[in-house]
Amino acid sequence: MSTKKLGLNTICTHFGELEDTVFKGAISPLYMSTSYAFEDVEVKRYPRYFNTPNQVALSKKVAALEHAEAAMIFGSGMAAVSTSLMAFLSSGDHVVLQKTLYGGTYNLVTEEFQKFGISYSFTDGLQPKHFEAKIKENTKVIYIETPSNPLLTITDLAAVAKIAKKHGLVSMIDNTFASPVNQNPIDFGIDIVIHSATKYMGGHSDILAGAVASTTEHMDRIFHLAKNFGGSLSDYTVWLLERSLKTMGIRVKAQNENAQKMAEFLYTNKNVKAVYYPGLPSHPDHELAKAQMKGFGAMLSFELNDSIDAYKFQKALQLVKSSMSLAGVESTLLSPTKTSHALLSAEERENQGISDGLIRFSIGIEEIEDLIDDISQAIENSLGV
Ligand SMILES: *Cc1c(COP(=O)(O)O)cnc(C)c1O
After folding, report:
1. What pLDDT is attached to residue 4?
2. 129 catalytic, yes or no?
3. Residue nearest to atom 2 of ligand 1 (CA)
């Protein structure tokens, strides 16, 4: 199957699938074997070598979705992030990282890199010049995340890719928040695309997984480290993730639509102080988002007026769940100060623009009227405190 001719939902449904030659079933068979023949075979298969039939099949689908030559599936998003970074960084090297990063990635860098002799700099801002300013003689990698968590800022993909090429660096992106439905960074010159597949790829809050997509050359390098680190995903979960990806296109597009309507509702609500969503013309990076995203995604964040108790508001919700993590078909929200960014100091949070009252909202596929009703009643019920 050539990806060029196929549209998103066809790739999601079919690309890479395994044929059931024995029973002619409609879906990929699941091969759970951890032991395969080693003689008279082209490939010596083993789950930790990332080459079982189901792993290979799913990798092809992910590569097609990200317009990449090759891909690998990992046991978690952080296995994908850590293996990708470490594959291109050795003792004595330096990496430039975007100032606003997923908490787990921030912890990986700040807690672990020193012991491997890897130095790092976080940018002072999100403009291309802020990335270039931190490049040193020993810099090897530029690492970005857009839209960012939790304020949904947008980093210029093409500009960062250009800077990386100019200085001979490898560019990497955490593309989790956008999903491959809304953003394909390789089209803009970014080298390596990483996903926490726990989020939109899985989409049902029941799978922990990661994925990386790039050129065959880069993926070979990542593979050589990955087989030693051992962060592969169980074949059963690989198979489940393939099933989840079949509906990713329609799920995420429905979530995009709901998020746009929710953002507009919140924006016009007098009890809401601020809304951060790249699909709103008021968002400072709206034009850039329009230029590099196919949809604006289903993550937004907002701040309630001071007259509303944010804690009481969350307790008053009946449909939307207060819950960690994101990107499921069900709508969830959380307070970054209490959860995803709790390990940062108050000063670091302030530096990233995360106020205590900020609420991060992951919009699901429920009927938007029901979601808006729930938010409205929760606001009404937490007024005047
Ligand atoms: C969740 C997440 C990760 C980490 O993924 P895990 O699957 O939890 O290991 C990395 N980046 C972003 C943006 C995430 O949301």
Report:
1. 61
2. no
3. 196
